[in-house]
Automatic annotation (TrEMBL):
The chain crosses the membrane at residues 6-25, 37-56, 86-104. This is DUF3325 domain-containing protein. It comes from the Bacteria. Keywords: Membrane, Transmembrane, Transmembrane helix. It comes from Deinococcus aquiradiocola.
C-alpha cells in the first residue's frame, strides 16, 4: 500500500466517523456533547482531502477530483446544521468521496 492509498483510506475512515456522528447528532443522541468532535472530524476530513490532492499530484495521478471534493466539503459551512440542506450535502459529499476513491484507486 502506498502513502497515497493510506491517505485515501484514512480519510475515508474519518469521513465515515464524521457521517456517523452527524447522523447521531441529527437523532439528538449526542446533542451538545458531539458538536466539537464533529467539527474536529470535519477539519480532519478537509485536511485529509487536501493531503490526498497533494499526494495524487506528486504521484502523477489525477488531483483535481480531490480539489472538487474539498470545495464541496468547504460548502458545508454555507448550509445550516440540522436542516435538510446540510445533511443532503453531507450525503452528496460522502457519495462523491466514495466514487472518487474507487476511481483513483
Amino acid at each position: 500500500m502506498t502513502v497515497f492509498h493510506a491517505a485515501v483510506s484514512g480519510t475515508l475512515v474519518v469521513l465515515a466517523l464524521l457521517m456517523t456522528l452527524g447522523f447521531s447528532l441529527q437523532r439528538r443522541w449526542w446533542a451538545g456533547v458531539g458538536r466539537w468532535p464533529h467539527h474536529a472530524l470535519y477539519l480532519l476530513t478537509c485536511l485529509g482531502t487536501l493531503a490526498c490532492a497533494a499526494l495524487a499530484g506528486g504521484a502523477g495521478r489525477a488531483w483535481w477530483p480531490f480539489v472538487t471534493l474539498l470545495a464541496l466539503l468547504l460548502g458545508m459551512s454555507r448550509t445550516r446544521p440540522g436542516r435538510p440542506g446540510h445533511w443532503r450535502l453531507a450525503v452528496l459529499v460522502a457519495a462523491a468521496w466514495a466514487g472518487v476513491a474507487c476511481w483513483v484507486w
